[in-house]
Structure prediction request, 332 residues.
Amino acid sequence: MHIPENYLSPSTCGVMTLAMAPVWYHAVREVRRTVPRERMPLLGVAAAFCFLAMMFNVPLPGGTTGHAVCGTLVAILFGPWAATLAVSIALAIQAVFFGDGGILAFGANCFNMAFVLPLLGYAVYRLVAGEDPDPRRELVAAGVGSYVGINAAALCAATEFGIQPLLFHNAAGQALYCPYPIWVSLPAMMLGHLTVFGLAEVVFTVGILAYVRKAAPSFALDFSGAESPAKAPAAVAVLMAVLVAACPLGLLAVGDAWGEWATEDLADLVGYAPAGLADGWEWTSLFPDYSVGGLPDWLGYILSAVIGVALLVIIFRLASGTSRTKVAFGSR
Prediction:
């Protein structure tokens, strides 16, 4: 679901970034107001769950792949606006350091996965869970909310892809950017997310939430116990280590996600290379496709996971030192 560089026109990217600007502003204000300073590092760990979930590529028959996001999970644990900020920073690290998602398309990717997904997923979760849900009902609500959230994000991405050839084409009718119209992009994107990728989102969200509620209840915004929230509980650190070690499983999925082909591969599919893709701006990342130097793919994937997790924890720990607001623990 990461929209690559040059699949959207510069004007589309600009509009999406402008649309996200007030969302980011409001998210920062809400996080400063609702997340106590001492819990900001834990929000960084939650953002790392999103980063790792997006590394576990899941194959779909036909040669495409997709992944979970876990934005609804972060919204359940820390609130929807905290999830917006956490997923946005995870997406920024992926784009800048690993070339996963375009720099110019960053606003669009955040709109889909850091805004629509967690806010809608959380709203559905609250609707299904009701007030003071029992553990089983909460997990059911989390599954339903996460499924709705990721499919809403996929619908937005499919729409952004699909309007490109209708709005931006040359005199011969050839698309300048994404060449697939909306009547192609919608079913192509939604098929995978309504089935396999939606299920992956549910499994990650419900599985991690069940584990955290049982093994590390302090890993949440609403925890009011006596233990210190200064660092992630040991049980969460163990889970993080397991996910990092297991992330090379994402390499087993063969093929590219729909809408994330290289220009030459897309040219083979449609018979020409859209001019905007062929001549567009490109960002050279330090660790393209989560590879590190000449290391084996599996080891590069693990090191990339460690780097991404470390960056997220450091960023949110630094943010905890600059936060000026301390609030009492609130209720979900």
Summary: The CA atoms of residues 131 and 227 lie 26 Å apart. Residues 324-332 have pLDDT under 50 and may be disordered. The beta strands are 58-60, 64-66. The longest strand covers residues 58-60.
